[in-house]
Structures are given as C-alpha cells and as structure tokens.
Amino acid sequence: MWWQALLASFGLMFVAELGDKSQIVILTLAARHGFKSVFLGAACAFALLNALAVSVGVLVYELVPETALKYTVSAIFIIFGILALLPRKEKTEEEEERRLKGRHGPLITAFLLVCLLELGDKTQLSLVAITAKYSQPVFVFIGGTLALWATSLIGAAVGMWLGKSIPQVWIHRASGVIFIAFGIINLFW
Predict the structure, then answer these.
(1) What is the reported pTM?
(2) Contact 29/109 with Cβ under 8 angstroms?
(3) 72, 108, 182 from 177: Cα distances, Å
(4) Domain range annotation of the chain
C-alpha cells in the first residue's frame, strides 16, 4: 500500500537522521551563515540523493568504492575544520556578504557537504531497501525526502539560534573542531 511506504520511509528517515553528522553539519553551517541558504542547499541535496536512492541507489553505491568515498569525505571534513580554525580578520557584514556572493556561498557549501556525507549513507541505503520492499518508489521518495527536510529544518533553525546567541569566533572554533573530529571518526568508523 502506498501509505505504508510513505509512513515507513518518513518514520525511518526521520529517526535515522536525528543527530546524524549531516544534521550537525547543517546546524553548524546555519550558525555561521544563517538559516535560508543552508536549509535550501541541504533540502536540494536530500531531494537529489533520495531520487538517486529510489531509482539507481544500488548502482551508485556499487560504482563508488566505499574506501574512496570514506577518504574523500574525511579529507574534506578535516580541510574545512582546519580552515575554520585559522585566524581571520573580523569582517563587516558588508564584506562578508561580498565574500559569500563572490564564492559559492553557504547554499552550495551545504548542498555539496550533504551530498558527500549522505552518498551511500544508512539513510540512502534504507530508502533503497524500503523501495524494494514496498515497490512504491514515488511514495518512498516523498516520505524520505519530507523526513530529511524536517530534520534539516530543525538543524538549521537551532543553528541560526546559536549563531545569534554565541559569538562568531566561538562558532568558528567549535565548527572547526567538529569538522576535524568527523573527519577523523569517519576514517575509523
């Protein structure tokens, strides 16, 4: 039944993603860059990855060697962590806006990080399994995507609140440590 596929994918994805590394990255990015761009980047990434999971998830997972994915994700986390810890000159809001517009900005950063973190992750593999069980890919996609959007919304909202409550220098330090820790943990997990 279609509603079972929808509810199963929503429930499983919501619980699996709460406190997951992607949600923590979304929280950290939203604390630094604000809610809207980070949430939109993460939402687009989850929609793309869920579409892959319910259509060609097994092929994508088999084509990308797990070891290569693990080392790439770890390296990216460690590099982002080091960059966040480097001392930086305090910028005005206007300078910061120009910097973000001149580069890829928080939307693309959130999109790319979520894509890298979630490709072949337990949530994506779970969607493949649920699709196989229920043979309802559209409803599995809808349920899974809504669940991951909900957890992203929670992470971005909490991050935005932290960004307003905690000095930016501490947010940069904490995000640097978190990114480096994820990179190291990912190597051995």
Answers:
(1) 0.69
(2) yes
(3) 18, 22, 9
(4) 2-88+98-188
Distance (Å, whole) CA 61 – CA 53: 9
Q: What is the pLDDT of residues 88-132, one digit of tens each?
A: 665 554 554 455 444 568 889 889 888 888 876 777 777 877 777
CA distance 178 to 184: 10
Spell out the SS3 assignment of the chain.
Answer: CHHHHHHHHHHHHHHHHCCCHHHHHHHHHHHHHCHHHHHHHHHHHHHHHHHHHHHHHHHHHHHCCHHHHHHHHHHHHHHHHHHHHCCCCCCCHHHHHHHHHHCCHHHHHHHHHHHHHHCCCHHHHHHHHHHHHHCCHHHHHHHHHHHHHHHHHHHHHHHHHHHHHCCHHHHHHHHHHHHHHHHHHHHHC
**Residue found under tokens 């998830």:** 57
How far is the CA of 84 from the CAs of 87, 91, 175, in angstroms? 8, 15, 7
